[in-house]
Design brief:
Layout lengths: L1 H14 L15 H16 L7 H6 L3 H22 L10 H46 L8 H21 L3 H11 L9 H11 L3 H22 L4 H8 L13 H4 L1 H23 L7 H38 L3 H11 L6 H24 L1
GO molecular function: carbohydrate transmembrane transporter activity
Pfam family, one: TMEM144
Membrane topology: Multi-pass membrane protein
Length: 371
């Protein structure tokens, strides 16, 4: 699926006669922007499933070890996509290092968020915040046009509410409410063993560890959202010029031309992070290739293809619409997290999370309509 999406984008990019917009303008008539958004939703929805492999989870690797494989897969795939494109020139930019710094930091945080909150709640929180941050960048820094400030702000407020509800769905709140309703007589007297366990866990002193994991998970998810929302800034600066840097003037689209710089930046920043971290701790990392090597490389490859699609969405639809729309991937994340991984269980928790997803989708829709 990922390869088919990337191939379709390359073919359309090769055959289309339209040029990417510049100077903060948008082009909603080009199919590339919408294809990129839809493709990124699908790829980003599935890209992290290998993080949940039982043996990867049991290995409890340092995030920077997994990130090494992850970054390598991302860089190799980005270069391969660039090589098979019709680009006939090499245009290196130092914005690739900025991208590498932002991306590596965000993915280390995302690894922690998924480990502590799961594949449903973690992405829901950071996706909503990503939309808010990306929108602010688009309006404040790149001067993307906004149809209605009031409507756009309303959409952001709806998003923030959705983020808060998504976070609470993975906390002790659903079980607490459920237990209180049972005690008030609104629930049948006969309870399942699972319900008894939940009540004992959250109401009889067993919540300490869970509460710590929840708070830590929310912290990492928020950090991921802040970084993730700034992720396309280097591409925008490479494409249109900003902060004193010149705009890209080559014949190919910036989404393709930026890939070599992205790869160099990722493969420079990742070992630098590892050297600083493990050097400070005076620790020799355990790479555990047999457990994490293939999952890490594939995860990086999947993400790189999703990022390639997202770059087209951002290039044509802007920071206010294009990249925020890619965060609708939380629908896929939620489906996998609830149905496949069973990370969120219980009627109250699932209903609460469903409400959160609705809020986030509505907020994203308002953002896209008024942005």
């Amino acid at each position: 699926m990922d390869v088919a999406i990337v191939s379709s984008l390359l073919v359309v990019n090769h055959t289309t006669s339209s040029k990417p917009p510049s100077g903060g303008d948008l082009d909603t008539s080009s199919p590339l922007g919408w294809m990129g958004s839809f493709g990124a939703v699908l790829i980003f929805g599935f890209y992290g499933v290998l993080l949940k492999k039982p043996d990867v989870q049991a290995a409890n690797l340092n995030p920077l070890v997994f990130q090494f494989y992850y970054s390598t897969g991302c860089a190799i795939t980005s270069v391969l996509v660039w090589l098979i494109s019709d680009l006939q020139e090499f245009s290196f930019s130092y914005w690739g290092f900025v991208f590498g710094l932002t991306w590596v930091s965000s993915q280390v945080c995302a690894y922690q968020a998924i480990a502590k909150l799961g594949y449903a709640a973690g992405p829901a929180i950071w996706a909503g915040l990503t939309i808010v941050v990306s929108f602010v960048w688009g309006v404040a820094a790149f001067h993307n046009s906004v149809r209605s400030i009031l409507g756009a702000v309303g959409g952001l407020l709806v998003l923030i509410v959705g983020i808060c509800i998504a976070a609470s769905a993975s906390s002790s709140l659903p079980a607490t409410l459920e237990a209180r309703f049972r005690k008030s007589g609104d629930y049948p007297i006969i309870r399942s063993l699972e319900e008894q366990f939940l009540e004992e866990r959250y109401l009889e002193g067993g919540a300490d560890k869970s509460a710590q994991n929840f708070a830590s998970g929310v912290f990492w998810a928020v950090a991921t959202g802040l970084l993730n929302g700034s992720q396309m800034v280097p591409l925008q600066c490479f494409s249109n010029g900003c902060f004193g840097s010149p705009a890209y003037t080559g014949s190919a689209g910036a989404s393709v031309a930026f890939l070599p710089s992205l790869a160099v930046g990722v493969m420079t920043i990742t070992p630098a992070f590892a050297i600083i971290y493990f050097g400070a701790k005076r620790e020799v990392p355990e790479f555990a290739f047999s457990v994490a090597g293939v999952p890490g490389l594939l995860t990086g490859a999947f993400w790189a293809m999703g990022n390639f699609a997202a770059m087209f969405a951002t290039e044509y639809l802007g920071q206010t619409i294009g990249f925020p729309m890619t965060q609708a991937c939380i629908i896929v994340n939620a489906f996998l997290g609830i149905v496949f991984y069973r990370e969120i269980t219980g009627t109250y928790a699932i209903r609460l999370f469903a409400v959160a997803v609705i809020f986030i989708i509505v907020g994203a829709g308002l953002d896209g309509n008024f942005g």
